[in-house]
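During the first year of the project, the team set up a workflow for recording each protein of interest as an amino acid sequence followed immediately by a discrete structure-token representation. This format lets reviewers and collaborators read both layers of information side by side without switching files. As required by the reporting guidelines, we include two representative entries from the current panel. The first entry is reproduced here exactly as it appears in our internal archive.
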Amino acid sequence: MTWHFTEDPAAFRAAAASLLAAEPARNTAVLTLMDRADRLGWWAGPDGRVTGVLALSPSGALDLGATTEDAALALAFPAGEEPVEVRGETAAVEAYAKASGRPWAPVVRMRLFRLGRPTPPDPAPAGRSRTATEADAPLVADWTREFATAIGDEPAEDYTGFVAERISEGRLVLWETPGGRAVSMAAVSRTIEGQARVHLVYTPPAERGNGYAAGATEAIGRVAADRGATHVLLFTDLSNPTSNALYQRLGYRPVTDHLGVEFTGAAR
């Protein structure tokens, strides 16, 4: 029983195909990251069955997919190459963090949701959704920076490429008032193995309380479904009861709980 590592997404996809195809929702983070990860890995048992996958990003963040506790306990990195943080299903993350011998602290607790029967917001917010265009890029970049700050991330200096990719591929929608003023946004990842993940759901503080985020989220869910996603997913921060309640009203149902931890020192 061992972990195998590669920098080649095609080799990773071939080796871990059975688990990725069987559990696309639980592997959403790894599937979304695999084309830009520094390192990809899979755990295979004596029978060759894969029961764990991971993606290590250039920033040193480790994402675990559908990974058993046994696989997480066996995961180790050479000294100096350990991840600075790890995210994934709670049991696997806790198992890895405890086994690492390094001091760590939880930084976020999340819940993965999957869209069941789509339910339009009731009451419906005023206005309509529309696909963002190139002309919207400066506004979307500003909102993305505000979004990063709001969730506790360090904002990037330049979101031009990040925003342009989503706009050019039609993966970002805006909600606008009847007068045509943009007041909220939502984006979705590319569809991989039938799964696509909603993200960047953001409404500026002055516009909140009007249901605009619900309208944008429902609209981007339709975009994902129209593009062939059979699993439309999103993560919520468990410390935010407002967003958790909102998404469930729109038809999202819990899949599994996730934990993000940060390492605060070397192994003892």
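The second entry, processed by the same pipeline in the following quarter, appears below.
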Amino acid sequence: MGKTIDIICAGEVLIDFIGHEVNTSITRTKDYHRFLGGSPTNVAVNAARLGLKSLLVATCGQDGLGDYIVRKLNANDVITSYVRKSENEPTSIILVSKSTSTPDFIAYREADCQIEQSQIPQELLENAKIFHTTCFALSKNPARTTILASAKKAKALGLQTSIDINFSERIWPDREEAKAVLKEYLSTDPFVKLSEDDCYRLFAEAKTEDFIFEYFHGLGASTICLTKGKDGVVLSSLEHGMFHQKAMLVDEIKDTTGAGDAFWTGFLYAQLLNKNLEETITIAQKLAVLKLQNVGRLPEGINIQEYLNID
């Protein structure tokens, strides 16, 4: 029997309140606009926009923001059967500065980390192709324990695991604990996405590409994608070697929040289509460029598959 779910995204669902003024610190930001947020949530929504069957495993509050989240997910054709509403914790929110570089943020975390094992039953994993999560999602229990156990089950069932190592010391102050948890997750040989900023925050200092690739390959990941902003992308594969792809030109950057999630959705989408790694990176970059030119999510009223021009 064929698999009915392309991607399970497990992790944080929350509300991003993105500042209205561009390149202004949170200290000076006066007005915020509300957007559906959370890295795995963005990937789930983007994947559905690309015509994939995407499912989100997450927890929000039994409140007005939680109702908004589920309504927006349903409107975007994301499967929400495994989104739980907590009666004890309110929906998590993040205040974000609008920026053309790396945005500043303040996180108010409540329900997002309350992901229980019952939300990821074995039959769900048996019907999926990719299991994706984030460093943010692994930073707190019970979500951490749930996701690690589910990733190991997913690997045993033949799923491809995936992780965005979106590390921030403000979300996860204990770097050594973070490294230990990442080691456990990377033992499932996931596709790994991380940025230069993520690496700097995780190691508390700048590291060379050679160090980064050797470190994460050493933990068990065969395919690692390092994004370098205006300097493009470097991909290292134990099977296919290493290559660098220059950044695509962007006419006008309106908002960087979620660009990495758009990039990674494109990557996973291309891999599901069995594209080679160079084609995969091109598709991923095209989707990131589209996001950079829009505030919040990918734009309405555009056929994204036509935009990507995939054969």
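For the second entry, the following points were noted during internal review. The first helix runs from residue 39 to 49. The chain has a mean pLDDT of 91. Both points are flagged for discussion at the upcoming steering committee meeting.
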